[in-house]
Amino acid sequence: MRTQILVIDDEESYCEILKYGLEKEGYEVETADSAESALGMDLSVFQLIIVDIMMERLSGFDFAKRVRNNPKTEFIPIIFCSALNGEDDTVMGLNIGADDYITKPFNPL
Q1: In what order do the strands lie in the sheet with 48-51?
Q2: CA pair distance 13, 95, nearest whole angstrom
Q3: Peptide bond before residue 108 is cis, with ω within 30 degrees of 0
Q4: What is the mean pLDDT of each run of 10 residues along the chain (109 residues)?
Q5: The pTM is what?
Q6: Residue 6 CB-density burial (10 A; 0-12 exposed, 13-18 middle, 19+ buried)
Q7: Using an 8 Å Cβ cutoff, are 77 and 56 in contact?
Q8: Dist CA 87 CA 74 (whole Å)
Q9: Does residue 68 lie in a domain region?
Q10: In the 8-state DSSP scheme, what is residue 11?
């Protein structure tokens, strides 16, 4: 069974770039255009979640808090991928429970 990754971003282009690159490396990738729509999915099937922070209605920070507070998903690795590039943003993301923090724009190679 291939590793399943969920990419959450309200910018379709970032979802497509990440999906293409990760699938090329052999991963199975699903995308969601909002944190809210991702919460409607069975998150427990994913081995990694890559999530943007700045999204309407429910931020990536709030999404990550919900994932970490759910016993079925609390140990799924989370990587924030965001245009927020300040040290405070990175520290906040890691304190919430993210495993890593990548800033946009990024080199998909």
Answers
A1: 28-32, 4-8, 48-51, 78-82, 100-103
A2: 28
A3: no
A4: 94 94 96 97 98 95 97 97 87 93 76
A5: 0.92
A6: buried
A7: no
A8: 25
A9: no
A10: S
